[in-house]
Design a protein that fits this description.
By secondary structure, this protein is of the alpha+beta class. It has helices spanning 3-9, 71-80, 85-90, 147-153, 159-162, 165-200, 204-236, 244-309, 325-346; strands spanning 29-35, 40-44, 60-66, 99-102, 107-117, 120-131, 134-139. A hairpin with a 2-residue loop joins strand 6 and strand 7. It is rod-shaped and about 120 Å long. The protein starts with a helix and ends with a helix.
Length: 350
């Protein structure tokens, strides 16, 4: 959220709906699936009225909204299901901390979805509201992140078709967490490549890449740690909406979140170690340069002293009258330099 967007919300009453994310102009896409164990109906919404509660007993209606920049659409859909105004306010407010609120009309969950697009890590906020017979999911972009769940819902006899909205909630969360592993695998591979390159040579470009991965992991950690409490609260605080069969799957989801957390911590330690290695490498290189300069200086200091003494041209310096004085003096300077150089080589300075 930018500073201007923060200022826009200052002083407004609770429940005021403002979109605070990236400015978008494309149309909002709404995909709807109504399903039960025996049948399924899938279509794109032509009007907001298509998002109203299903009239079929025993059916679950899944409304997936791609784009939260049109706050009027978000508000109208939520009003169909009597969702609390504070929840409606949070859905288009990008930058929410992962959390879960259990209300009398349903359960609201917000978290961050990560995905790998090429060599870039992309993330967006995802909000999910579910209750008896319905589930509404919101994402920022128009790229359907739940297409795999949609494919599973089309298969008769699967858990999604047999289950209620609580199982579909689990399936959506599980897909997001599974994509965490894909992103972390990419980060782990990049860390291994950088470690191998760092051993051979270090460069400013490598330092930039290390800091880029570090920032990604910091953001990742900020959105992963609260997710543990979200899954726990879903098991504990929403007994009227979550069946005993779904609780088993939620416990497995919690285990996956813990594994993701462990991977993030491990990679953060690796990144910190790489930064230490890089800085030590730069420091050692600087020390080597200073050592060479010091050796050169120590060799030339006595030679400079000798040349200074015989450069004074005093009248009564007997060596000035010596016929071979110049070549002998140069030979002495050369021998002194060789003696110092051999000494430094013996003690390991060069």
């Amino acid at each position: 959220m930018s500073q201007d967007e923060k200022r826009d919300k200052v002083g407004l009453p609770p429940g005021t709906i403002i979109h605070t994310g990236e400015k978008r102009h494309e149309d909002v896409i709404i995909k709807i699936i109504e399903f039960s164990e025996g049948e399924i109906r899938e279509y794109d919404a032509d009007s907001i009225e298509d998002c109203s509660p299903s009239l079929k007993d025993g059916a679950t209606k899944w409304i997936h909204v791609m784009g939260v920049h049109d706050v009027d659409i978000v508000e109208k859909i939520c009003n169909f299901y009597k969702i609390h105004p504070l929840v409606i306010e949070d859905i288009p407010s990008i930058g929410q901390r992962p959390k879960l609120d259990a209300m009398s009309t349903g359960v609201y969950t917000v978290l961050r979805a990560y995905d790998l697009i090429g060599n870039d890590v992309h993330s967006e906020q995802v909000s999910i509201v579910f209750g008896k017979g319905y589930i509404i999911s919101f994402q920022e972009s128009s790229d359907d992140i739940f297409d795999a769940i949609r494919i599973r819902a089309r298969r008769p006899g699967g858990h999604i078709r047999k289950g209620d909205s609580d199982y579909l909630e689990y399936a959506l969360l599980d897909l997001i967490v599974d994509k965490y592993f894909v992103v972390l695998e990419y980060i782990g591979d990049r860390i291994e490549e950088l470690e191998d390159d760092l051993i051979e040579e270090g460069s400013a470009e490598m330092l930039t890449e290390i800091y880029k991965l570090k920032r990604t992991l910091i953001a990742f950690r900020r959105h992963i740690w609260p997710l543990r409490q979200v899954v726990l609260k879903l098991q504990r605080d929403a007994p009227q909406y979550v069946s005993d069969e779904t609780l088993v799957f939620l416990r497995d989801l919690y285990d996956h979140v813990i594994r993701v957390t462990d991977h993030v911590e491990t990679y953060r330690e690796s990144i910190t170690g790489m930064l230490d290695i890089y800085l030590s490498r730069v420091s050692n290189k600087m020390n080597e340069v200073m050592q060479v300069l010091t050796v050169i200086s120590v060799i030339f200091i006595p030679l400079t002293l000798m040349a200074s003494i015989y450069g004074m041209n005093w009248q009564w310096m007997p060596e000035l009258e010596f016929y071979y004085g110049y070549p002998v003096f140069l030979a002495i300077m050369f021998i002194v330099g060789l003696v110092l150089l051999s000494y430094f080589r013996r003690i390991g300075w060069v």
